[in-house]
Automatic annotation (TrEMBL), chains A, B:
This is MerR family transcriptional regulator. SMART domains: HTH_MERR. SUPFAM superfamilies: Putative DNA-binding domain. InterPro entries: DNA-bd_dom_put_sf, MerR-type_HTH_dom, MerR_fam. The keyword Transcription applies. One of its GO terms (molecular function) is DNA-binding transcription factor activity. The lineage of its organism: Bacteria, Pseudomonadati, Pseudomonadota, Gammaproteobacteria, Salinisphaerales. Residues 3-72 form the HTH merR-type domain.
Length: 140, 140
DNA sequence: CTAAGTGCTATAGCCGCTATAGGAGCAAGT
DNA sequence: ACTTGCTCCTATAGCGGCTATAGCACTTAG
């Protein structure tokens, strides 16, 4: 079974080459073996690991959370309570962001629909930005 | 009318002191006069300007967009088309983010409800992260 | 044998702040 | 007058999570 180059691993995992090196530097990815000419040589498990990381990143988990999740993967017999906690916290964060963004969306829409598209002088967009009291939602 | 200190301006605008200095450095806020002892002295308009910036930041506009919006405020007779464009672009960005986050929310919820809260070995959270194919939504 | 491609390291930059260090000045209490 | 504590000043570094650049070594295809 031939060793995989960083380029091949990048290709199959969907993680870019410099990002892989970055993950190695911050200790998220195991330091691989090196060839005679000092190139990184990966086994196929590196691809799995990177896919795991990529998927977690796509779901918005930060590096520290991913570090913990990977650590847990190494202890399959342990309770997965902590994984649940991490995922729940992430869910709460996502829900909070959605709520905030939805409020912003409303305000942006109102700004835009109220604007009569004339002059800056009486542009509703500019007015609303200048005067927070013009917002209906006091959320922010 | 006495000049306002950076602390007073920060207080009334809701923008922190170091942030005000930062905005000055990047040319977003006009350079104020200085007292004999080299302290910044603001007029009341600085508070309005900072409130504008703060509100725009809260709505997710980036610094460059705000720079343009402020520039427009200085030309009240111009058409406000550009302000509309900036706000529309921001609305599109926000809508896109909401959509993505909603997809993530769904996946996180599925991860959590499928987990039987036992061992890491068969933890649905970990499994899902490891294998993207377990996602129903292929959005990401 | 050459040229393109891939790999390597080290370092700087991105955004929008925030924190830290090290100093000067001002206001109020003793 | 003195001290204490607050605000102010500058300059610089750090945050997260990469991404870009420079300058070199090596490999592979034609």
């Amino acid at each position: 079974m031939p060793a995989l180059s960083i380029g091949q691993v990048a290709e199959s995992s969907g993680v870019k080459v410099p990002t892989i090196r970055y993950y190695e530097r911050i200790g998220l990815l195991a330091v691989p073996a090196r060839s005679a000419s000092n190139r990184r040589e990966y086994g196929p498990d590196a691809i799995q690991r990177l896919r795991f990381i990529r998927h977690a990143r796509e779901l918005g988990f930060d590096i520290e959370a991913i570090r913990t999740l990977i650590e847990m993967q190494h202890h399959p017999a342990q309770s997965c309570e902590q994984a649940d906690e991490i995922a729940s916290a992430q869910l709460a964060t996502v829900e909070d962001r959605i709520q905030r963004l939805t409020a912003l969306k409303g305000e942006l829409e109102r700004m835009l629909t109220c604007c009569r598209h004339e002059r800056v002088r009486n542009c509703r967009v500019i007015e609303t930005l200048a005067d927070h009291d013009k917002c209906l939602h006091e959320a922010h």
